[in-house]
Design goal:
- The complex is a heterodimer.
- By secondary structure, chain A is mainly alpha-helical.
- Chain A folds into 2 domains: 43 residues; 199 residues, Orthogonal Bundle (MetI-like fold), CATH 1.10.3720.
- Helix content of chain A is 78%, strand content 4%.
- Chain A has a two-stranded antiparallel sheet with strand order 1-2.
- In chain A, helix 3 crosses helix 9 and helix 7 crosses helix 8.
- Chain B is mostly helical.
- The two termini of chain B are 49 Å apart.
- The chains are: A mainly alpha, B mainly alpha.
């Protein structure tokens, strides 16, 4: 009797659950799943927009063939995007982890700095970042972008009395730090949340055992953060790939706005498949090589 | 010799006092920490300061190498000019009407959906959660073209299309160019980055204690009442986080808006067309005329001032709450 009633409540609850989620299911099908399937269809067909609306003809892999064999820019842009990502990903992870660890310590002015370091998320997402780094239209030769103005070569040479070669490299390093730090906002927040979830008793034990801070980091912080690191890594890869300043997305958008849907669909799909492959590879390597070492 | 708590604490205290090396190392550490944080903070804040000084200085002061941070002569001329060029008032209103309404709708519907995911067991839950992750992973540019064609003849899962075939009356509305292209996805929790917002909510709702809800069930409240009376009041922290994210993302979204709207663009779209707008008003950016840059930066500043004020108001709660939301799971 009791069991039966409980089951009754369980089925009732499962109905309620579906009721809550059904809102999203409708949205998912209407505004995600159907368009996604159509977009796959576009990539494999030729599209003409006439009086009868959009008409599609299936052409197989022709679009992809065009892109990879005939379009010289596409493969070049693909290579540069992947290179950029392979270089930025570890840098962003390291910089945001270091900053998160510093910001997680207790010191005077902590909240101020936390608020400060989240600021880029507000300013840097989207158009403003492109405008101040002079990327919105390539044909306008901007006199000087903001990052270049920050430290000019002459400044560095004057202040530190350095030869020109070193000063130029320093300026490059500074402006790359700039673009890195500006991409780290959400990552820092995620890492801080992860650091907060590590029980402090672990650090107390290691203190009693006489471990150094360095050992603390490698044997407590880093292993305990492994899941968060994976999450931040995945998030960063997605952000880097969907960044609208990436040349492939830019050209695809440009084509879309003139009404060429087929090739631009194929462009984005191939790009996305590569991104998914890299994502899968990173997740695989991370879980199977690093996690196994700690087991 | 007896060891009790006080004597041990006493001896630890003595150790701390008697080692001056330790004190100097902590001082050194905090100086080092402040040095790193301030220098990177300078990099973070630099563009903002640069925008502010540039936008308030006159043309002469902007070109004058002796005035760097504090301009020699101050003017608001840049602002009035850019206000006209960007059609700021109308664009701001459009942003509020289109993007902000859809942001708040999204905050609300995502909470409902996440509550269902986090607190109830139902068939296919695992598969649906996996699909939720797919929506996070796939960027919107992939689906924007089909979305546009669908919005131009909105067909609710083929129902209206079927009606059209049978009766010959075309009821499929053309939503392109209306704010409904933003409201509708938000109403069904599939708007801008909804997947991520639902995920944040789910992580938080999972951590809520079950006792309160059970009590409300026993007292005879239904699921909707329980959601509004128990779950919503105890999740102010996560709601604030989601509101901040949603508003910021919507504020900065120019891609969807430029695709779906024909006119009455929100502010972000205006920003993405700033160079064209300036050219149209006879201002060209060239190395010979660097004061064009001042106009661009003034525009940027005017664009970020509203979200900046919003962030400054909520940051106190937001920065503290981020620890407790448990986004990382």
């Amino acid at each position: 009797m009791k069991n039966k009633k409980l089951r009754g409540i369980e089925t009732l609850k499962s109905k309620y659950g579906l009721m809550f989620v059904s809102i999203w299911i409708v949205g998912f099908v209407l505004f995600f799943f159907i368009p996604l399937c159509q977009s796959v269809g576009y990539a494999f067909s030729e599209i003409s927009i006439g009086e009868k609306g959009v008409q599609t003809f299936f052409v197989g892999f022709q679009n992809f063939q065009k892109l990879l064999v005939e379009d010289p820019d596409y493969t070049k842009n693909l290579g540069s995007s992947i290179g950029q990502m392979v270089y930025s990903l570890p840098m962003i992870l390291v910089v945001s982890l270091v900053l998160a660890i510093i910001l997680n310590q207790k010191f005077f002015g902590r909240l101020f700095f936390r608020a400060l370091y989240f600021l880029p998320v507000i300013i840097a997402t989207g158009v403003v970042m492109q405008l101040i780094s002079g990327k919105v239209s390539a044909d306008d030769q901007m006199a000087s972008t903001v990052t270049q103005n920050m430290f000019t070569v002459e400044d560095i040479m004057g202040v530190f009395n350095l030869p020109a070669g070193i000063a130029t490299t320093m300026q490059e390093i500074i402006s790359s730090i700039f673009s890195l730090v500006w991409k780290c906002g959400i990552q820092i927040v995620l890492f801080i949340a992860g650091l907060q979830s590590i029980p402090s008793s672990l650090y107390e034990v290691s203190k009693v055992e006489g471990a150094t801070k360095w050992e603390d980091f490698w044997f407590i912080t880093f292993p305990m953060l492994s899941r968060v690191t994976l999450l931040v890594g995945i998030f960063t890869i997605i952000e880097l790939f969907t960044d609208s300043t990436s040349p492939i997305i830019e050209t695809a958008f440009a084509k879309m706005s003139v009404g060429i849907y087929d090739i631009s669909s194929a462009m984005l799909w191939f790009y996305f498949l590569i991104a998914a492959a890299i994502l899968g590879l990173v997740v695989f390597l991370y879980t199977y090589i690093l996690m196994r070492r700690w087991d | 010799m007896k060891f009790n708590k006080e004597s041990i604490l006493q001896s630890i205290g003595d150790c701390k006092k008697s080692t001056p090396v330790k004190i100097s190392s902590t001082v050194l550490k905090s100086v080092f920490r402040w040095f790193i944080l301030l220098s990177i903070g300078y990099i973070v804040l630099y563009p903002l300061f640069y925008m502010i000084t540039t936008s308030i200085s006159t043309k002469e002061a902007f070109l004058d190498p002796t005035s760097v941070w504090i301009p020699n002569s101050v003017t608001l001329e840049n602002f009035t000019f850019m206000y006209k060029v960007m059609d700021y008032g109308a664009a701001l209103l459009a942003t509020l009407r289109i993007e902000m309404v859809s942001a708040l709708l999204e905050v609300f519907t995502c909470a409902i959906v996440a509550y269902g995911f986090a607190r109830f067991k139902f068939p296919l839950r695992k598969i649906l959660t996996a699909l939720l992750f797919v929506t996070i992973l796939i960027p919107t540019p992939m689906i924007v073209m089909p979305l546009m064609t669908n919005f131009s003849k909105l067909d609710f899962l083929g129902i209206l299309g079927l009606f059209n075939k049978i009766s010959g009356i075309d009821l499929r509305p053309d939503l392109l160019g209306t704010p409904w292209t933003f409201y509708l996805p938000s109403l069904f929790a599939s708007g801008l980055k909804s997947g991520l917002l639902i995920y944040i909510y789910i992580q938080f709702f999972k951590g809520l204690p079950y006792e309160l809800e059970e009590a409300s069930w026993i007292d005879g409240a239904g699921p909707i009442r329980t959601f509004f009376a128990i779950a919503v009041p105890s999740s102010g922290v996560v709601i604030l986080t989601v509101i901040v994210f949603s508003i910021i993302w919507h504020w900065n979204d120019y891609f969807m808006a430029s695709m779906f709207m024909d006119e009455g663009y929100p502010l972000a779209v205006t920003m993405s067309k700033l160079h064209d707008l300036l050219n149209y008003n006879g201002i060209y950016l060239s190395p010979e005329k660097p004061n064009g840059l001042a106009y661009v930066l003034t525009g940027c500043l005017m664009f970020i001032i509203p979200p900046l004020i919003f962030y400054l108001i909520v940051q106190h709660w937001f920065v503290e709450s981020i620890d407790r939301v448990g986004i990382t799971g």
